[in-house]
Design a protein that fits this description.
Chain lengths: 755, 162
Amino acid sequence: MPLDHNPDKKDFKVVGHVKTRPDGVDKVTGRAKFGADMFAPGMLHAKILRSPHAHARIKSIDTSKAEALPGVKAVVTAADFPDNPDLLANEELVNIRYNVMARGKVLYDGHAVAAVAAVNPRVARQALKLIEVDYEVLPHVVDVELAMAPGAPILHEDLRTNGEGDEPTNVARTIEIGHGDIDAGFKEADFIVERTFTAGAAHQGYIEPHACLANVSGDGSGEIWCCTQGHFMVRDFCAQICGMEVSKLRVTASEIGGGFGGKTTIFIEPVALALSRKTGRPVKLVMTRDEVFRATGPTASSSTHIKMGCTKDGVITAAYAELHYQGGAFPGAPSDMGAMTAFACYQPKAVKALGWDVVTNRPKQAAYRAPGAPMAAFAVESVVSELAAKIGMDPIDFRLKNAATSGSRSSYGPTYSDIGLVETLEAAKAHPNYSIPLGPNQGRGVASGFWFNFGGQTAVSLNVNIDGSVALSVGTPDIGGSRASMCAMAAEELGIPYENVQTIIADTGSLGYNDVTDGSRVTFASGLATIEAARNAKKVLCARAAKIWGIPEDAVKWEDGCAIPAGPNAGEFPPLSIKELAAQAGETGGPIAGHYEISADGAGPSFATHIVDAEVDRETGRITILRYLIVQDAGKAVSPTYVEGQMQGGAVQGIGWALNEEYIYNDKGLLENPGFLDYRIPVASDLPMIDTQIVEVPNPGHPYGVRGVGETSIVPPLGAVANAVAAATGTRPQELPVSPPRLLKLMKDQPLAAE
Amino acid sequence: MTHSHVTTTINGDTVDYLCDAEETLLDVLRDRLGMTGAKEGCGTGDCGACTVEMDGRIVCSCLVLGAEADGRSIRTIEGMAKGEELHPLQRHFLEGAALQCGICTPGILVAARALLEKNPNPSETEIRYWLAGNLCRCTGYDKIIRAVQNAAAEMRGESNAA
């Protein structure tokens, strides 16, 4: 069914004016319930024993002493997660089960080996020390290039590249995208820049560690409360891993204390479920920060080779990339996303991008805000700025000259619908920040960025209450203020005040399946479904008014929260408000509701351009961010201050990745910085205010023109910061993070002329 | 295991509890007293999500033993609003979109209140350094700093507080 889209709608009454979020008061008073904030009568506490080795064969596990400790109620190991046909049919799920609990071999420092449930956390911790694991330590590899090299330690004997070949390998997948004649493109170029870049593995760094409470009844049905970006995913994965019927497991999403992609999979939920099943009691499992760093997903680290050429007039003729991404112990590094996004801001005549997905002895990577894109953009945006400098063109003018436009063919294949990259570049160029004079040791960097945005499976249920207020149930956990946006879109469509709509994240037993909150999809897809559900409810409301008035249904229309006769021929009746219709629902046909289910497409990509001014301390190597500007296309900003918040938060995560954040391994393959002291995310005193400008180029795929905004903002910062440092020092950083020791070494080893 | 009997004051109320020697004040607040407003983000004093006030000083409650609270006066996020009336900081955080996921918010509010009680007119730099021990991963701090500035202006009685 074609949707009635009117992305040029301008007369918004609620959308665009949202002030406060419905979850806000509970969050400022401490009442909001996060993953670890739930308790159940008779609850046990669980702890997980983790591998102290990067790579080792498990020869034996003896849990008898732990089981004998007073207060210990159960111990589980891989043996408690037996094979079942549904599981074995799904390779990804088999890997997730292996990641959740090691079987045969441990594949990284921190890999789960066993778990204990006990009367309190202290007894559980004590019990872990009594579990005896006999390991045969194996050679390990944590670096992507070393993992690809001949003779590298092999993680999975049965892994073959793209499922083909005879020899075991650590290269799980390769991908190639592109079009045009790449060799001819480079022949046309007057200037070519070719460089290799590396970016460290950054962790999502959500402040709330993973937490869950599982409760299995004697009849085999169970419940899980947990912090997750997708409780339907938790239900389905857990049920299949634990051999349960999906309908017997109900999952409720708690408030979520940050996710950024890192909570789009499971780590501890099946473990708590298995322990609860074994003990017949509720089991709470909360990760420590050390566990979060060692055993949940950071993003992939990367090694990226870029070659780009342009004419002396500034036309990019060819763009080539090789992206080596390691994604930890299992396949799934987003080298495909890296390859597709690398050149998505531009229109090179010829483009080719090759991606490698490589396994190493590190924790399995998880999605992190625009997964795969920031590290590719770091490399590409560095080269783009270098090309601009080579031909003496302003870096924004150079980008404008080559920018992807509405109707142009994207570098990854499809043709763009209406997009706003040019608008962001023009607004950035006109912004006062771009002309502020710089002092010594200061540099200005520009970078643009792209993210696809997702749609996906979405179900929404909207119910009109007896007083005319509205209860809206969505199935996508709110990680960025989406409940406020849903309230706004429902209120806009129904013509009622924002305050009259309450949105909840319904549990898995109350609503149809919803994909996880990822890909910046929620305000777009759940928003679209909310609008359509409201339209369906309006049809019911109009039908009820028709019944009351005794006129045909199509003689009634909905306006400003009331049913009114559609025209003079319909007869003269005073408007019936949603409140009046709701009060009579019992006599006119029963409860009034609207539902909508969709597999949404048409998400509409979002582009951004960032400008950063940085100052370098040549003595200490410290880089200070002086000012930062984000210009991003939001399509239509439903809640402008929350859109700004998404833009600012993403940019600061990117600044952290560029300047400080990375996983540091020692020669034994053990993570050396699994804590916030040594894995240093930006703190308040590191930063200036973050300037924002929202551009609105309506997305034709959404009734109100909305685009996702959450992820694009982390794509440009790595390249923007690197370009600022290059401008300030005359030395181009090719390794991120450009931490103080790295910058000092760089300035010492490779003094270059200023670009 | 021997328990300690502790008598302390929390948000003005006298509270008695028993705790193990190794339980932190944060464990006690959350697991024994049901006060889950303070959060455990790290357990090592690096993130500030568990910030409470003890005898007028902000502390990471994950670094204080439950037994150490004996005879002290503790203030937590649960005591910040007076009934339905939010503290100006809470209101400005809400109105200024200074929170997203909200996990760091209780700790930041408790820390910011302590700052404003000590220094009613802090500069942006003073706010940034005072809150440097409270990690927020969502906001980039911009709107948090502005909310503290606006709340401070209102509490000083300046009418132009946004």
